[in-house]
């Protein structure tokens, strides 16, 4: 029996054939309207590298989305779409899975809207949700 030194490592590699890849949801998808609005907002703030999306516990139903400018990447997940950098806080990643972010303007308001297929309920004020 041959002796192995402490620094050597053995590994076996198996070829995998006919493996079917499963599609996965992006953590967050941006609509063209959202991309354009973020670009417009960041143009006036050259010291910021993107925007950060998160969730906070508040409101009468549980969670609420947050959106803020950020100067650093940090440990968060990054979504890059059409040159826009969006960072996702670690604790928000699972709650945002599959969410589409849009920017909507009408005669009375303009706002970012999160279309999340995983939401099970929202509060009456429209400020919070539960998953």
UniProtKB/TrEMBL annotation:
Pfam families xref list: Fe-S_biosyn
PROSITE patterns named in the record? HESB
Residues covered by the Core domain:
28-127
Summary of the function given for this chain in its UniProt record:
Involved in the maturation of mitochondrial 4Fe-4S proteins functioning late in the iron-sulfur cluster assembly pathway. Probably involved in the binding of an intermediate of Fe/S cluster assembly.
Q: How does it assemble?
A: Interacts with CRY2, but not with CRY1 (in vitro).
**PANTHER family from the xrefs?**
IRON-SULFUR CLUSTER ASSEMBLY 1 HOMOLOG, MITOCHONDRIAL, IRON-SULFUR CLUSTER ASSEMBLY PROTEIN
Family as reported in the entry's similarity comment: Belongs to the HesB/IscA family.
Q: Which NCBIfam families match?
A: iron-sulfur cluster assembly accessory protein
What is the name attached to this protein's record? Iron-sulfur cluster assembly 1 homolog, mitochondrial
Q: Which organism is it from?
A: Saguinus oedipus
Q: Which gene encodes it?
A: ISCA1_2
């Amino acid at each position: 029996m041959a002796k192995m030194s402490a620094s050597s490592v053995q590994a076996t590699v198996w070829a995998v054939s006919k493996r079917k890849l499963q599609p996965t949801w992006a953590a967050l998808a941006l609509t063209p309207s959202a991309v354009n609005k973020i670009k417009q907002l960041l143009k006036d703030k050259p010291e910021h590298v993107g925007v950060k999306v998160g969730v906070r516990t508040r409101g009468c139903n549980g969670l609420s989305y947050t959106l803020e400018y950020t100067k650093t990447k940090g440990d968060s997940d990054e979504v890059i779409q059409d040159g826009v950098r969006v960072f996702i806080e670690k604790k928000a990643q699972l709650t945002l899975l599959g969410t589409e972010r849009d920017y909507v303007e009408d005669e009375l308001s303009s706002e970012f809207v999160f279309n999340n297929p995983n939401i099970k309920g929202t509060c009456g004020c429209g400020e919070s949700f539960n998953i």
